[in-house]
UniProtKB/TrEMBL annotation:
This is Uncharacterized protein. PANTHER family: HEME OXYGENASE HI_0854-RELATED (PTHR35176), PYRIDOXAMINE 5'-PHOSPHATE OXIDASE FAMILY PROTEIN (PTHR35176:SF11). GO terms for cellular component: cytosol. NCBIfam families: Rv2061_F420. GO terms for molecular function: coenzyme F420 binding; oxidoreductase activity, acting on the CH-CH group of donors. It comes from Micromonospora citrea.
Length: 131
């Protein structure tokens, strides 16, 4: 099982973005497999989205709902999705998280509107094998 498979199987992953001064800002998020990457979803005006827009350098690690990691953090690169890809990410989240995912997405759409959230694709950094 690859690192991507393991992270995609987790209920929550810790997505850590970085401020301009280099300070880490960890956030537990839902994550789904999206081809050769992970996908997460966030409010479009959130701090993590602003930090990703500035620099896509992130790390991801398996964690619990409170953001306590229970595995190694992996370097990755995050990019923001366009509206079509964001819709696809929402569909993947509905599939993985079922009723609670649908309810969360509905609540978010009612609060923020269709454009109030954005999908984020997280590509894991390639690592040399071995070790």
């Amino acid at each position: 099982m690859t690192t991507l498979d393991r992270l995609a199987a987790e209920k929550y992953v810790l997505l850590t973005t970085f401020r301009k001064d280099g300070r880490a800002v960890p956030t537990p998020v839902w994550a789904v497999r999206d081809g050769d990457a992970l996908a997460v979803w966030s409010a479009a005006d959130s701090g993590k989205v602003k930090r990703i827009r500035r620099s896509g350098d992130v790390t991801v690690a398996p964690c619990d709902v409170r953001g306590r990691p229970h595995g190694e953090a992996v370097p990755a690169h995050a990019t923001l999705c366009d509206p079509a890809d964001t819709r696809r990410v929402r569909d993947l989240i509905k599939r993985k998280y079922r009723l609670i995912g649908r309810l969360s997405l509905l609540g978010s759409r009612l609060r923020r509107g269709e454009g109030g959230t954005v999908g984020i694709r997280v590509s894991l950094a390639e690592r040399p094998s071995g070790g």
